[in-house]
Design goal:
Layout: H1 4-28, H2 33-37, H3 42-54, H4 78-88, H5 93-97, E1 110-111, E2 116-124, E3 149-165, E4 170-182, E5 193-212, E6 215-228, E7 238-250, E8 253-262, H6 275-279, E9 282-290, E10 293-302, E11 307-319, E12 322-332, E13 342-352
Antiparallel strand pairs: 1-3, 2-3, 2-13, 3-4, 4-5, 5-6, 6-7, 7-8, 8-9, 9-10, 10-11, 11-12, 12-13
Length: about 350
């Protein structure tokens, strides 16, 4: 018995070592079939094959095992992901007008045109009561005047009618814009819509590629506009015009320059024969975008009569696809009814869309 004890102890020790090796192999996971084949114990060898099979994908390939000297993968910060998404959604004239083949979305798809916004409080220093003076007493109480604060909103869209025309892969668009002024806080006058201007237009947009003063010329737009307020009598206002517009940009800055020619009307049907004296012969608009903010400046002027207007806009982030919006205006022609009336306004609201 004394001579057998060391043999039993050595056998037990060997078993423990083998079990420890098997446990270590289980913890680390087999690297290949040859590792499993080298295990002497049948049950442990079968278990090794099972673990190896469980670690392979549907195509029979072993899943990659990260080496100890490799740095673990670090997930991309949320701010970086947001910045990539912001850049992907960033405004560009090519995306707005679908100038490149990558930006084409086909015909008869509703797209943004001019800014869509609501100014819940638009304050005017000098509301235009003159057109309504003959109506006071018959339609509203005597002495009623327009409120200095009203709601202003602008809504619109554009839609491509024809795509990839022979002229430099140009597109024919239809656009519609409505701008309304609502005396929502004027209870004495029964809260009327003071003015609504309707502006349908046809536009042939031709892609271009040139450089002017460091700006990249993206397109030329040949347009036809009808603008009216849909009224009759002394409140009727309307005019038609052709225009030529060019769009340039560099980085986050874009510039639109437009010149127009009014289509003459007969004296008996012309509601506003002197409109060019106040609205001029074109306009210039610059927009700069910075970290979700949008700063815009629109100007027009008739240098012979020294009449014109300047409009400033600031849109700032509030929520996805919704921005706070501040707009200031000074000059003539904020609305068609006010084409010959000078005033200064400032309004606060929201801008929606792109």
């Amino acid at each position: 018995m004394k001579t057998s004890t060391p043999a039993i102890s050595l056998s037990m020790l060997g078993g423990l070592l083998l079990a420890s090796a098997g446990s270590a192999t289980h913890a680390q996971g087999p690297a290949s079939l040859s590792d499993c084949a080298g295990i002497a114990d049948d049950r442990q060898r079968l278990a090794c094959f099972d673990r190896l099979a469980a670690g392979t994908g549907q195509e029979g390939r072993t899943r990659p095992v990260q080496r100890a000297d490799e740095a673990p993968a670090v997930p991309e910060p949320a701010t970086a992901s947001f910045e990539k998404a912001r850049q992907a959604d960033a405004f560009s004239l090519s995306r707005h007008w679908e100038l490149s083949r990558e930006d084409k979305q086909g015909t008869f798809v509703f797209r943004p045109h001019h800014d869509n916004y609501v100014l819940f409080a638009n304050y005017s220093t000098s509301p235009n009561n003159a057109p309504f003076t003959p109506l006071v007493g018959s339609l509203v109480p005597q002495g009623t005047k327009l409120s200095h604060v009203e709601v202003k909103f602008q809504l619109g869209f554009k839609m491509k009618l024809l795509e990839d025309l022979p002229l430099r892969h140009s597109d024919l668009w239809f656009g519609y814009t409505q701008q309304s002024y609502w005396q929502a806080y004027n209870n004495r006058a029964s809260n009327p819509f003071r003015e609504s201007d309707y502006l349908p237009e046809l536009m042939l947009v031709v892609p271009t590629d040139y450089n002017l003063f460091g700006l990249n010329g993206r397109f030329v737009n040949f347009g036809l506009i009808h603008q009216s307020n849909g009224r009759g009598g002394s409140l009727s206002r309307s005019w038609n015009r052709f225009y030529l517009q060019t769009g340039l940009e560099k980085g986050d800055f874009s510039l639109l320059a437009r010149a127009w020619k009014r289509i003459p009307e007969s004296a008996s049907t012309d509601d506003n024969p002197d409109i060019l004296n106040y609205m001029g012969y074109g306009d210039l608009q610059g927009v700069y975008r910075w970290r979700g903010h949008e700063f815009s400046l629109l100007g027009r002027r008739n240098f012979h009569t020294n009449h014109g207007a300047v409009q400033l806009g600031w849109a700032f982030p509030l929520a996805p696809r919704v921005k706070g919006f501040v707009q200031a205006f000074s000059g003539y022609g904020q609305s068609l009814l006010d084409y010959n009336h000078a005033q200064q306004t400032i309004g606060l609201g929201i801008q929606v869309g792109y």
